[in-house]
Design brief:
The chain is an alpha/beta fold and about 425 residues long. The protein has 2 domains: about 260 residues, EAL domain (TIM Barrel); about 130 residues, Beta-Lactamase (2-Layer Sandwich), CATH 3.30.450. It contains 16 helices and 16 strands. The protein is elongated, with a radius of gyration of 28 Å. Pfam families: EAL.
């Protein structure tokens, strides 16, 4: 804000009071015995390494200046049928205070009750407020709150109307309550905000860290930008970075405040995370290469012997004698498996018994599998997959594959390796990403 702006006498809109915090013009209003005002939590782009938006959040104090939770404010409003009025009041406060921030290009993320979108009067009031403040709709991200909508089709029509006006739409709290994949298809948001309940298990347990990147990838393929909210620790921040989220929000990056975020400090935090992620990725890749090296050597030797005419169940012994080797199998050039899996360890019979209907893979087609397609593209070279869920025993595995010539035909030799989460990997929030 310029000095000239600070010296200008502020005229508060009807029902609002104006004050100054650290030289910044700030609006508040009263609702019953509560004083309401706004704070803003920054939303960061990990790629741009800066704040690209601010979410408006309600703050309330009672007559004794004691803080009152926004949940309590809206809960009480819902009990007396006043929730849309409070929602509109919060919107107006956030718009006034956001304008006073002087942000020139950032978005305002505005939480909106579904009823406020479908009510023509409230929708018109929002548009009128924007015109008065000179804020174009493209600066506003409407967050559709995670609540049951009585008429989802009507809500979808309202969302489409706002998007046509230039607003961006965010689906809030995806993964919690009523926000799910169906709502993504029906509301077609520009941004999906992932609830922190999806984040926390991945930062704590390695098994969970492989789920989040898949979800982010799915949403990206659906044409949605992804924001992960509620990030509070470095482990959670690293997981968000590793799974390729577009935006992040949470106490780790910036707490709600009446002021704009310190650009230099936030850039330094994200730059540090990026470097930490790079170092962790390099360390993991080196560890995985070392871990796989004996399997690759044994597998290459098996392929050489197979090409020389030795039978499958003999050439795989050295590979299968390694601790985590699970099975070998052979595919033709169409991805069909002509023989049963070759398994050496007796203890696998017990493990496989739970998935007995899947144990006989003779005649199965693995044409769609990446390990087959990669081997066919680059014959005579061992291919290594990323960890994935094996259909044989519903456990994580890595598959080695190599296309080789056996007489006059091309065949693809494959070997599965059980992929356990090692103890040192469990300290990495993105061990399996």
């Amino acid at each position: 804000m310029s000095i000239a702006q600070q010296d200008t006498t502020a005229v508060a809109p009807h029902g609002f009071e104006v004050s100054f915090t650290s030289g910044l013009q700030r609006y508040s209003t009263r609702h019953g015995d509560l004083e309401l005002t706004s704070v803003f939590q920054p939303v960061f782009s990990l790629s741009h390494m800066r704040a690209v938006g601010y979410e408006g959040l309600l703050r309330a104090h009672d007559s004794l200046d004691r803080p009152v939770s926004p949940l309590d404010v809206f809960g009480q409003a819902a009990r007396i049928g006043d929730v849309l009025q409070v929602d509109r009041l919060a919107q107006s406060l956030h718009l006034e205070n956001f304008k006073a921030l002087g942000a020139e290009r950032e978005w305002l993320f505005l939480n909106v009750h579904p009823g406020a979108l479908t009510d023509p009067y409230l929708a018109a009031a929002l548009l009128a407020n924007l015109r008065r403040l000179g804020l174009p709709p493209r600066r506003i991200v409407l967050e559709v709150l995670e609540q049951r909508a009585d008429d989802l089709e009507r809500l979808a029509d309202a969302v489409r109307h706002f998007r046509e006006r230039g607003f961006l739409i965010a689906l809030d709290d995806f993964g919690a309550g009523h926000s799910n994949v169906e709502r993504v298809w029906q509301l077609n948001p520009d941004i999906v905000k992932l609830d922190r309940s999806l984040l926390a298990p991945g930062a704590i347990r390695p098994q969970g860290s492989s789920i989040l990147p898949g979800l982010v990838s799915l949403l990206h393929e659906a044409g949605k930008l992804v924001l992960i909210e509620g990030i509070e620790t470095e482990s959670e921040a690293l997981l968000a970075l590793a799974c390729d989220a577009d935006f992040v929000q949470g106490f780790y990056f910036g707490r709600p405040s009446a002021l704009v975020t310190d650009a230099g400090a936030s850039t330094a935090v994200i730059a540090g995370l990026t470097e930490r992620n790079r170092a962790l990725t390099e360390m993991r890749e080196k560890r995985d290469a070392s871990r796989l090296a004996p399997y690759v050597r044994a597998f290459e030797r098996a392929a050489e012997r197979l090409a020389a005419g030795e039978p499958l169940d003999e050439v795989c012994w050295n590979f299968l004698s390694l601790d985590d080797a699970a099975r070998c199998f052979l595919l033709d050039d169409n991805g069909r498996q002509s023989e049963r899996n070759v398994v050496l360890r007796a203890d696998r019979a017990v493990q496989m018994s739970r998935f007995l209907p899947l144990s006989d893979a003779k005649g199965a087609s693995w044409l769609r599998r990446p390990y087959f397609r990669a081997a066919i593209r680059e014959p005579q070279r061992v291919q290594v997959t990323r960890p994935y869920l094996s259909i044989n025993e519903a456990t994580l595995c890595v598959t080695l594959s190599i296309a080789t010539r056996i007489g006059e035909r091309i065949a693809v030799l494959c070997g599965d390796i059980d992929w356990h989460h090692e103890s040192e990997e469990s300290t990495s929030p993105h061990a399996m990403i």
